[in-house]
Design goal:
Number of helices: 12
CATH superfamily of the domain at 22-163 and 269-294: Winged helix-like DNA-binding domain superfamily/Winged helix DNA-binding domain
Organism: Adlercreutzia equolifaciens
Number of strands: 5
Protein name: MarR family transcriptional regulator
Order of helices and strands: HHHHEEHHHHEHHEEHH
GO biological process, one term: response to stress
Largest sheet: 3 strands, antiparallel
Structural class: mainly alpha
GO molecular function: DNA-binding transcription factor activity
Shape: globular
């Protein structure tokens, strides 16, 4: 894997991870993204009274996953199973979905609000490409142009869920690492023609936007698995630096090559365009600012 591809994969993974983090902050702790997407789908006119298998098809999910989500949401009084086998929102479910959608719309608006018109056009084109893939809810002729230029909760979640699912498949194909653990290793992979890349714990915390406790436990686990080593920091007697082992380098290369192929399959030649790289870098900065601002908002 060359350095340009490594940089591109790192950028895409960071954008995806921070979008997911923002959504996780706004959803109730007991509610998954899948459950919320199901609720929001039921607010649409064509899905107000629908069979779970139809929802699975619209959201490109496994029917068993939808059935499990329906059971959980029904126990919470947000979804009502009907005698004809269909499901629909309860009044409480509709009110809750509207409240959460409003919050998520604020987050996605913060993420894209500072983009220049050209950057928004780039992002809209990426969404169009992703939503044109076979199986997407937006792939049908009547909805094909619906997503262009619109960056709300439903489309934002659909795009991140689609990309996240593809990324997880690529990671699990080569390793048992979680997405966050892989990003830890990916940040240690050289992005320039240097012999090694070493990071301090505080740098990893900043890049991944995780707690210090995660970095501490993950570094021990990844070291035990042979992916990285902790070495003394020559500039700080009490400090520790992380760097990849040869095994870690090979792991990142294998997974990142697969991830790059996934990106190309979804977005075509746009993955390599400088305009896309610039737009994603700016989007990443705006996501960081949005995550900081979320903590100051009162709902």
């Amino acid at each position: 894997m060359d350095y340009a591809k490594a940089h591109s994969v790192t950028l895409w993974c960071a954008v995806l991870a921070k979008a997911n983090r923002g959504v996780a902050k706004l959803l109730p702790k007991q509610m998954t993204q899948l459950q919320f997407r199901l609720l929001e789908q039921l607010t649409l006119p064509e899905s107000g009274h629908v069979r779970p298998v139809r929802v699975a098809r619209l959201l490109v999910l496994k029917p068993s996953d939808v059935d499990e989500a329906v059971a959980v949401l029904a126990d919470q009084g947000l979804v009502r199973p009907c005698e004809d086998g269909c499901i629909e929102l309860t009044r409480a479910g509709r009110e809750r979905t509207m409240e959460l959608t409003k919050r998520l719309n604020v987050f996605f608006a913060l993420c894209v609000g500072g983009l220049a018109d050209e950057e928004r056009a780039v992002l809209a084109d990426l969404l169009r490409r992703a939503f044109s893939l076979p199986g997407s809810y937006y792939a049908s002729g009547s909805r094909a142009g619906e997503s262009v230029g619109v960056f709300d909760a439903r489309r934002g979640l659909a795009a991140t869920a689609m990309l996240h699912g593809a990324v997880l498949v690529a990671i699990k194909k080569a390793t048992s690492l979680s997405f966050t653990d892989f990003r830890f290793l990916l940040e240690l992979y050289p992005k320039r023609r240097t012999a090694t890349r070493m990071l301090r714990a505080r740098d990893v915390v900043a890049f991944l936007r995780t707690g210090r406790a995660y970095v501490t436990t993950a570094s021990v686990r990844l070291e035990e698995q042979g992916y990285l080593v902790r070495v003394p920091d020559d500039r700080d007697a009490r400090g520790i630096l992380f760097k990849l082992t040869p095994q870690g380098m090979l792991c990142v290369q294998d997974v990142a090559d697969d991830l790059y192929a996934v990106l190309v399959s979804m977005f075509g030649e746009a993955v390599e365009e400088r305009a896309v790289q610039r737009a994603l870098k700016h989007l990443l900065e705006l996501e960081d600012a949005a995550l900081d601002e979320l903590g100051e908002l009162s709902w």
